[in-house]
Structures are given as C-alpha cells and as structure tokens.
Design a protein that fits this description.
The protein is α+β, with helices and mostly antiparallel strands. It has five helices and five strands. Helix content is about 30%, strand content about 20%. Tetrahydrodeoxyuridine binds near residues 25, 61 and 92.
Length: about 140
C-alpha cells in the first residue's frame, strides 16, 4: 500500500491531529491521535483514553481499530499516528500486535510534530510475530 495520494495522506493527518486534541490523557498529558484508512475508503479515528487505574489505559491505535470493527468500516489499509513529540511516535508493542491482527501489510505512517515521518508497515514493526496462523499449526 505505497500508493496513498498526498491528498489522502493530508486527510489522515488532519483527522489524526483533530482527534489527538480529544485524547483523555489527564495523567500522562501525552496526547496521541490515530487515523485509519480502510479498504472501503473510510477514515476512522481514535485517541488515547487513560484511566485512574493506569493499566486500563487504551492507546489511540487500538481505540481506532475497535471503532473500525464496530462500524464495519472495512479492512484497515493504513494507519497514521501523531504524538506530542518532535520525533515521530511509533506504536507501542500492544498496538503493533493489534494492528497486525487486521492486516500485516497495513501501512503505518508515524508523523512527528515537525512533520518528520517514519513510513513502515505493521509487519515490519513486529517481526517474528505470533498470529492466527500459529493457532492452526499441529500441536502435541
Ligand atoms: N500511547 C498511545 O496512545 N499509543 C502508543 O502507541 C503509545 C502510547 C498513549 C498511552 C498513554 O495514554 C500515553 O500515550 C503515554 O504512554
């Protein structure tokens, strides 16, 4: 999925930056936004949602994936992530696993505050991963 137009990328960036402002992050004050593009052409966004019981926090990427499933929005083909830092924010381990679940070829575009980018895929972000195929393999 290298063929995203500059217009689509711009739309994803705008959507991610908008939803980032709505993050519920009173503890870390680290606001994150994610915008998925699906094979139906839908853009589905998510922001991080923290909790006073810290471990219940859900990252922006997983909020977006959950919304895409609930809305029957189609298969995610790209995910653009924005964080509050100058450096691009790359998804945490749990989010890498969650992105992979839906599409290992999903393009993942991480954009820093100054526009710097890391452009990769879900599969590249989590090599030697565990997935549905493993559950199909012969067992003892
Ligand atoms: N966070 C995300 O939303 N996505 C990531 O991939 C990394 C971390 C959030 C979780 C928490 O609310 C805050 O950033 C600090 O870890």
């Amino acid at each position: 999925m290298d063929d995203l137009s500059p217009e689509i990328l711009e739309k994803l960036l705008k959507a991610a930056r908008e939803v980032q402002q709505r993050a519920h992050a009173p503890y870390s004050k680290f606001l994150v936004g994610a915008a998925l593009l699906t094979d139906k052409g839908r853009i589905i966004t998510g922001c991080n949602v923290e909790n006073a019981s810290y471990g219940l926090t859900v990252c922006a990427e997983r909020v977006a994936l959950g919304r895409a499933v609930a809305e029957d929005a189609g298969k995610p083909v790209a995910c653009l992530v924005v964080g509050p830092t100058a450096e691009p924010l790359t998804p945490c381990g749990a989010c890498r696993q969650s992105l992979l679940e839906f599409n290992p070829s999903m393009r993942v575009i991480c954009v820093g505050r100054d526009g710097r980018r890391i452009d990769t895929t879900a599969g590249e972000l989590l090599p030697h991963s565990f997935g549905a195929d493993e559950l199909e393999k012969p067992r003892e």
